[in-house]
Amino acid sequence: MRLRLAVPIVSLILFLAACTPAATPAPGGSASVGDLRLSGAWARAASLIAAEATPMAMSTPESGMGMEMAGTNSAAYLVIRNEGRQADRLIKAESDVARAVELHNVKMENNVMEMFQVDGIDIPANGQAELKPGSYHVMLIGLTRDLKAGEKVKLTLTFEKAGAVTLEAEVREP
Amino acid sequence: MSRVRLLILGVVVGLALVGAGAAAARLLAPPEYHGLVLEPNAPAADFTLTTAGGQRVRLSDFRGKIVLLFFGYRFCPDVCPVSLTMMKRALEALGAQADRVQVIMVSVDPERDTPDLIAEHVRRFDPRFLGLSGTPDEVAEAATPFGIYYERVAGSAATQYLVNHTATITALDGDGYVRVVYPHGTAGEAIAADIRHMLAGRYP
Asked: For residue B79, which residues of chain A lie inside 8 Å, CB to CB?
């Protein structure tokens, strides 16, 4: 009797395990993909400004800025731990809350802040990359909606070797 | 037995004296500030810029208050929000004394940050904050005397351009003298502690 019950349970577990994709989203801004463990994902709260809908009085003809470029931005952060023996690299980030998403880093020299786009963020073998304020971050350019504290934002990150994974980042102040 | 009591009493009185002495020394000693302390011999250069609704604002309008002055831009998603948050925390830590402080953010990206936009942007952090912008020339005139460097650099199709800029917070006293310059990331509570000293006229 006990054995008869065990067989379907075991096969059910195996079936579920087979169905689970390589990338497994988990609660609390964490996920796994291949040898990579992603955790502590969060995005900075930001809200669209009503004045954005009005023409820019100060814009000069030579600046050529369209209104779509005057949007509100935010940033997302997380820790990516690599438990494998092979180095990996974060090469792309996507999110439906922004018109464009880029990987950026910040350099501070003589108190001068320089933010610049990067092609990728290395995740060393048996090491980690920490995306945090004042350092590497996922830049969310031109928010399509307000990011309110407590909400969740979906981020899809693509790694050179491990592939793509989607996780939820919690929106936080600041 | 009574000798033990006497000993305990002696220890307690001794500790109390040491504590009182330490407290007195703290009150008498010059306070330690949490940033680069300056001793200018004249008030900082005045500037006139624009806030929401086209209202013109001069730095000298805030004489009598401590001014926390920050130069940044709205497009900056990482560094500038941290500075604004630290200043918000400073005001929160100061409680009622925050009435004697004015936080001002000047945009170093006047092409994108209209006075209305920068004013609303900083109000989202704290309604007491004042956001200023102006013509590129006006912003340059305001920034230079404070040693603020900023420079437009090419960005991507999405960002168009980014602005490298000095990310310090400058604290001016009620007479308009620059007293302290804080490096990026100085905790709001540390700034608040310095402001309490400044309001009490205690300088290093």
From this structure: 106, 113, 115, 133-134
User: Looking at domain B36-199, does it have CATH number 3.40.30.10?
Assistant: yes
A50 at the B interface (CB within 8 A)?
yes
Q: Is A39 within 8 Å of chain B by CB?
A: no
Interface of B with A in 160-199 (CB under 8 A): 160, 162, 164-168, 183-185
Q: What is the pTM (predicted TM-score) of this model? A: 0.82
pLDDT in tens, B55-67: 999 999 999 999 9
Distance in Å, alpha carbon of B162 to nearest chain A alpha carbon = 7
Interface predicted TM-score (ipTM):
0.82
Buried b (16+ CB within 10 A) or exposed e, B64-92: ebbbbbbbbbbbbbbbbbbbbbbbbbbbe
CB contact under 8 A, B159 and A102: yes
Domain edges within chain B: 1-30, 36-199
The topology (CATH level 3) of A23-172 is Immunoglobulin-like (2.60.40)
User: Distances from the Cα of A163 to the Cαs of A36, A91, A125, A129, in angstroms?
Assistant: 10, 10, 16, 16
